[in-house]
């Protein structure tokens, strides 16, 4: 029996994860994520699936971030009726993420239709043109390409609606960490803790035709050791092939203690100047960890207790899921919980659920801290805060997560002095800071250390595929893996198929 893997996303970029494994007549999909960030990336979401969704036997989901689960409802809408395997933490979070995604897309489409009432036909023709170009691998024409990152990522035509999300949720099958499940005859999967966000998993796939067994391990997004709330990523020791992420394949993070010191200093600066600290953060994972750290620092008297606004309805719902799944916590957080502290809450934190409350933050008493999504400044609540706070010298824009190439976040992080938001040119006068030590992704050394677990003894993999990285980091990690671990390591191309057996 032959086994093939096809790389349908998260190659040459950090979004759109999607890998198809074909074993004989069985087809299993690992992740089905949304492309995000630069406009030309977002447009890839419109490319039809490479396979007939109805012919898929099983879908497996590593974790609930949109760039891993965001196209699942489109898969279901396209005719996939089979099971979607994931941990219970992931299915709970994914439902929140997908509902939000459906709502945003429907709103964007409605807005577009209001602005262009007579252009429905032209609109569809344009969509077809764009799609054909994307499929042909041609560059986007200039009129479709933003001159500079604007944060605008509307797809205009919604890929799916909330009913598709309802149906997707009905197809979820919860699995436990460490439990081996048969996902389709001849293919078994074991989910191991990836320590990235609640419920996140490394997936170990065993494919057998009764005579020979092949193991393929997918790292998913790999977390870091010694971070708050979650356990460290599981170390595996056997695989024939490993598909590994490389978000930070060319960089080492500052250690956690240095990150804490930088955060203490950033808070002190804003507190002293009576300003606002604006933190873009993914609603799921980053926000909960940051609250954990701020709560810890207030308790220890290392930072003053500034008002904290959690400006994301999705973060608020995600925090409820975190509170329900205490069995996923590491020993430290479990102990805090037993001692009566509520480690996922900051004293007096305020969730701003309505848009009016969110906009009212601009006139609230300062100093204060706002945590809002999206994490890479590609849309969402953070955009109106940027208009208010970027021109203000008393404010700090603090990055704690990865900023993908082509995003407004990357533009500002790398010294952009102006930003175009909603067609308006905004001058940047606030402080821009980056703290890398809070990352939810393993750094270069940690990725290599995780991979080295496979090379001891007789379990050495034949090959590593380096995915989920911008081109520089992916190439750097592949090179280091070849040099230090002596493994064959490749950076696959978009839509490339590789025979594994
Ligand atoms: Zn992730």
Can you walk me through this structure?
With 501 residues, the protein is of the alpha/beta class. The chain has two domains: 3-250 and 440-499, 4-Layer Sandwich (Metallo-beta-lactamase, Chain A); 256-434, Rossmann fold (3-Layer(aba) Sandwich). It is 33% helix and 21% strand. The protein is built from 15 helices and 22 strands. It has helices spanning 39-42, 66-69, 72-77, 88-115, 120-135, 162-170, 256-273, 286-299, 313-324, 331-338, 355-360, 382-389, 408-413, 444-455, 471-485, and strands at 3-9, 18-23, 26-30, 58-60, 84-87, 172-175, 180-184, 187-193, 201-208, 213-218, 241-245, 276-280, 308-311, 350-351, 368-372, 396-399, 418-421, 424-427, 431-434, 463-467, 488-490, 497-499. A seven-stranded mixed beta sheet has the order 6-5-4-3-2-1-22. Strands 7-8-9-10-11-20-21 form a seven-stranded mixed beta sheet, with helices on one face. β8 and β9 (201-208) form a beta hairpin. α14 (444-455) packs across α15 (471-485). It starts with a strand and ends with a strand. Residues 139-155 have low confidence and may be disordered.
What are the key terms here?
501 residues, alpha/beta, Metallo-beta-lactamase, Chain A, Rossmann fold, seven-stranded mixed beta sheet, 15 helices, 33% helix, binds zinc ion
CATH topology of the largest domain: Metallo-beta-lactamase, Chain A
What amount of the residues lies in strands? 15-25%
Largest sheet, in brief, is: 7 strands, mixed
In CATH, the homologous superfamily of the largest domain goes by the name Ribonuclease Z/Hydroxyacylglutathione hydrolase-like
The low-pLDDT segments are 139-155
Terminal CA distance reads 8 Å
The number of strands is 22
CATH class designation of the largest domain: Alpha Beta
């Amino acid at each position: 029996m032959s086994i093939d893997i096809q790389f349908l996303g998260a190659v040459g970029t950090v979004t759109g994860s999607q890998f198809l494994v074909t074993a004989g007549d069985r087809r299993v999909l690992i992740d089905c994520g949304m492309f995000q960030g630069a406009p030309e990336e977002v447009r890839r979401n419109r490319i039809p699936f490479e396979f007939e969704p109805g012919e898929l036997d099983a879908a497996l989901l590593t974790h609930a971030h949109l760039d891993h689960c965001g196209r699942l409802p489109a898969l279901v809408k396209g005719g996939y009726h089979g099971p979607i395997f994931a941990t219970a933490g992931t299915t709970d979070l994914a439902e929140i993420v997908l509902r939000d995604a459906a709502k945003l897309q429907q709103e964007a489409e409605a807005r577009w239709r209001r602005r262009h009432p007579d252009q429905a036909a032209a609109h569809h023709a344009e969509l077809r043109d764009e799609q054909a170009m994307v499929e042909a691998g041609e560059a986007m024409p200039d009129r479709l390409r933003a001159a500079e990152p604007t944060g605008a990522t509307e797809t205009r035509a919604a890929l799916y609606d909330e009913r598709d999300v309802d149906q997707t949720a009905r197809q979820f099958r919860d699995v436990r960490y460490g439990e081996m499940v048969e996902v389709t005859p001849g293919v078994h999967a074991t989910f191991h803790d990836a320590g990235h966000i609640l419920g996140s998993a490394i997936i170990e796939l065993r494919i057998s035709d009764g005579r020979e067994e092949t193991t393929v391990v997918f790292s998913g997004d790999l977390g870091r050791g010694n971070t708050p709330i979650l356990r460290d990523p599981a170390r595996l020791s056997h695989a024939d092939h490993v598909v590994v992420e490389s978000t930070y394949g060319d960089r080492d993070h500052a250690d956690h203690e240095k990150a804490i010191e930088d955060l203490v200093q950033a808070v002190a600066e804003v507190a002293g100047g009576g300003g606002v600290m604006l933190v873009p953060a993914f609603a799921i994972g980053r926000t909960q960890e940051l609250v954990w750290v701020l709560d810890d620092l207030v308790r220890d008297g290392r930072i003053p207790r500034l008002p904290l606004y959690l400006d994301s309805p999705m973060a608020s719902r995600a925090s409820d899921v975190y509170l329900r799944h205490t069995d996923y916590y590491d020993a430290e957080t479990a102990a805090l919980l037993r001692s009566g502290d509520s480690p996922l809450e900051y004293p007096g934190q305020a969730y701003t659920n309505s848009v009016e409350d969110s906009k009212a933050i601009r006139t609230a008493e300062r100093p204060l801290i706002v945590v809002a999504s999206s994490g890479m400044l590609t849309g969402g609540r953070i955009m109106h805060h940027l208009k208010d706070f970027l021109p203000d010298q008393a404010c700090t824009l603090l990055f704690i997560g990865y900023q993908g190439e082509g995003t407004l976040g990357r533009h500002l992080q790398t010294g952009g002095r102006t930003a175009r938001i909603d067609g308006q040119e905004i001058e940047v006068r606030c402080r821009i800071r980056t703290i890398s030590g809070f990352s939810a992704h393993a750094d270069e050394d940690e990725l290599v250390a995780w991979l080295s677990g496979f090379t001891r003894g007789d379990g050495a993999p034949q090959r590593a595929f380096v995915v989920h990285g911008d081109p520089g980091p992916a190439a750097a990690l592949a090179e280091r893996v070849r040099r230090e671990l002596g493994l064959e390591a490749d950076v696959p191309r978009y839509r490339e198929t590789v025979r594994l057996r």
